[in-house]
Every structure is written in structure tokens, then in C-alpha cells.
Amino acid sequence: MNIRIPFIAGTIALIFGLTACDDDLAGIGSSLMPEQDSLSTFYLAYPITTRTVKTDHVVARTSSCYLGSLLDPETRAVTTSSFMAQFHLQEDYTLPKEELLIKDETGNICADSCVLRIFHDKFYGDSLTTMRLTIRDLSMDNVMEENQTYYTDIDPTQYVNPTPMVEKTMTYSVVDCNLPSSSTSLSSGNYRSIPIHLGKDYGTYILKNFYEHPEYFKNSYTFSHNVCPGFYVEHTGGIGSLVNSDVSVLDVYFRYQSNDTTVTNAWMRLGATQEVIQNTRYDHELPAEMLLTDADHPYTYIKSPAALHTEIDLPINDMIAGEHKNDTINCVRLTLRRYNVEHQSTATLTPPNSLVLLRKGTAEEFFNENKLPDNETSYLATYSNQSNAYTFSNIAPLVAYLRKQRDNEAGVTAEDDDATREAKRAAWEAEHPDWQTFELRPVQAVYSESTNYYGQTTKTLIGIRNDYNLTSVKLEGSPNGEVKVNVIYSRFAK
């Protein structure tokens, strides 16, 4: 059932003020119309249906890696993350001449040690929880390539070296209690790290390759295909913390004779940066309750990364059919309110900052092609602390787009009578059952800022990507129609 409230033309401005519909000038000029014509506007509220849907996977396009396992105290969902990382090598990388290196007792090249450091300044959960990881080197027979698309459900075992040169298991915590607080406090400008000691043998292997095959060190590609394809860092135990690593580095330590009397300690540093591939795999254990759709659960979930999203069925046909087939739709406003978290804790997850509204089945194309919301078939909404909701202020162009698409593809013509039109539309709708279904996906919006002569700052949206942060939000709505979409029409009457 919808709600109808008639208004006269003189209240158009008030309506649009209350509904915050942007850039609509339907009321301008109404006083200049012939007396025999009258313009009426009215407001209708249509119930919509929503449901929680598992997210199969998303494109793993991020420069951050996640490691660990965390229980969401609100939903009891468990998120576990492991990652694979390659290492960037600067063009024409150089080291001291081989004859200057300090050799072992047999006169061979020898590294002093080799350490992989997972740097991080952001984490979720308890910083003192004991966690366990296992690290293995990747295989040169199946190297991750730049021209391939990888997803968050990637199977790392396809890339691990079957006869690993490096295989080590160790325990760690977000804050290393073996170090003084002055070394682990972020407030003092430090960057926390998880050091994984790989042993001097692997460092020696890299140094020998450098001097025996300098062509392998021409760039990152030759390095990854001939020396080090990267590492798989797997979470293998513990629950209670999850770290977000912006960069990992591989340090190879050695010594060389800098002059006749001085021995210099040095290291070769390679970084897992955005120039090379980093892939995080996410596994989610989701309680069955999060996917329930009965009357006792008037809400849906959105959870990132790559866990849950919300589907929406908008009653497009009801908006444009019957008595409304000749009406003008001025504004369509959709607001989704958030349920507050009942029991806050240090592990409570925050809601995603932004949601993108997409037609069902178009998300992969949207993100693969780095598209931006066009405000016709895709829209962006930002979470508001003030309203505790996400609001799509005016998706009327979407309704117009779908109406036109349906009629064009159904072959509706001006010469058709009403029965023929409805038959064509019904046939097209049967072939496109999801034409009124949309997805809400959590995203990170990237903006650029510019300042004009008067000091006014303008933000411009330059990028949209999947949200790889750990977020969770419970939204009002279910298949029972608790949420309504608000529509403002205008109509001429003789």
C-alpha cells in the first residue's frame, strides 16, 4: 500500500525543501500557465523489499594486506585473512662490487641474515592477543601476473612453491611485548612491524643470484620470474586481532669492505608496494542468523571486505504504471537507516563510509573498469552521523532510464494500444526478472581537492573501489517492506 498526499502547485518549493531533492525546478513558471491548466504535485511512499546476500568475491585491487582473525562482537561473524605479496625492485638495482663483500670461511658469498617485516599502523581487536602465522615462498612455475585479474577468494595453494625454500611458523602479537613501549608506540612516530626471520640461507641465495645473474635484477618482472616470486603469509592460529599492512619489506643483510680498514654493515631492501601484486584472501564464518529473512528480523547486513551486501527490489513498475503512466517523476528519495550497536567494545566494527547503488549483476564490470557513479544507473551515498543513515537523495533518473530501456527493448511504439503495450512489457519483464533489483555495495570513495582564488575548497570524486576495510552495518529493511521509497510526482489537469 502506498501513501498519497496531494499538494497544490504553490507548495512545490516546500515539498522539495523537505525532501532535499536536488536540481529540480518543476515549480518554476507554474504561475504563468493558462488558467484552464493546473499543475498538481503529490507525494507517494512505496514499500521496498531488501535482503542480505553473500558476496562471492570482489576484485582484489588494493595496496594493503590483511593478516589475522577477528570475531565481530555484534554479529559473531569471524573474518580470517592471509595474503600473498611480490616485491618491487628498482630499475638497474646495484650493490657493492662482489670482491668487496665479506665472504664466509670458504670464500663464498654469504648473507648475515634475511628478515621479512610486515609493517602496520592499523589493526582491529586486541593488540596483545597471541596469533600464529606460517610463511612459504611462492613458485616460479606459476607467478602472479600484472595483466591478470585476481579476486578475494583466490586459492593461494595454486601459487605456493611445492618444494619451499622458506617454510616457517611463528607466533606474534600486534604489539611486541619484547620491545620497550617507546619502540612500539605509534604516538612517538614509530611504525609497528612483525619481523619474520627467514635465515641467512635465503639471503645468501638472493645475493648469489645478484652477482651470478645480474640480468635477473633488471626490474621487478625479471626478479619475480627468476629469483623471488614472493611469499604467502598464512594465518594459522589464534583469534582476536587482524592487522592492516600498507607495506612489507624483505631485508637482506650483508657486510662489505668499504676501505682498507672499515667493514660496513649494509642491507638490500625490497618492498611489497603498489607497483607489484599484493593479494589478500578473506574467509568469513557467518552465522545463519545474518541471512534470515523472516518477520522477526527486520534488517539486512552489509559487511566488508567481500562478505555480505544488501539487495533491494524497487517497485519501478508501480511508480510508472496505471494512473502514473503519464505523470512526471520529479524526485525519488531512498533512505536506509542504520541500527545502532547495542554493546560497544574495542573490537566493534564501524559502518562503511560509503555505499554504491548498482543494478544487480553489474558490480564486477563496474569495479573492473574503474567506473564512477553516473547518477543514472549508479549512485553514491555517504553515511551520515547526524541522520544515522545512508540517503540517495534523488534516483529519479534511474526510473526514467529503466522505463525507456524497457519500452525500447520490448518494442513498444506510439501506435500500440494499451493492451499491446502491456503485453510487450510483460514479455520483456519475464525475460529480465531482475530489472527492478539493485545491489548496495560498500566502497571507498577517493576525492581530489582544489582551492580557488577565494580560498573555497572543492572536492571532486575521482575513484571508487571496493571497501577492503573491516566494516559492518545493520540496516533497517527486509522482504516485509518496512522501508519505503518516497516519490514526488507532478501532473497537469484540464
Describe this structure in words.
The longest helix is centred in the last third of the chain and has 15 residues, at 396-410. Strands 4, 5, 7, 8, 9, 11, 12 and 15 form an eight-stranded antiparallel β-sheet that branches. The protein has eight helices and 25 strands. It is mainly beta and 494 residues long. A hairpin with a 5-residue loop joins strand 13 (247-257) and strand 14 (263-272). It has helices at residues 12-19, 181-184, 200-212, 220-226, 316-320, 363-368, 396-410, 418-431, and strands at residues 3-7, 38-47, 49-54, 65-71, 78-85, 113-120, 122-125, 131-137, 167-172, 192-197, 231-237, 241-245, 247-257, 263-272, 278-285, 299-304, 308-313, 328-337, 354-359, 379-382, 389-392, 437-451, 457-466, 471-476, 484-493. Helix content is 15%, strand content 37%. The radius of gyration is 29 Å and the shape is elongated. The chain folds into two domains: 44-55 and 288-493, no CATH class; 78-284, no CATH class. The two termini are 28 Å apart.
Task: State the main characteristics.
single chain; 494 residues; mainly beta; 2 domains; eight-stranded antiparallel beta sheet; six-stranded antiparallel beta sheet; 37% strand; disordered N terminus
Helix residue percentage: 10-25%
How many beta strands in the DSSP annotation? 25
Total discrete domains: 2
What is the tally of helical segments? Answer: 8
Apparent shape: elongated
Low-confidence stretches: 3-33
Radius of gyration: 29 Å
- What about the largest sheet? 8 strands, antiparallel
What is the arithmetic mean of pLDDT?
Answer: 88
Structural class of the secondary structure composition? mainly beta
Beta-strand proportion: 35-45%
Distance between the termini: 28 Å
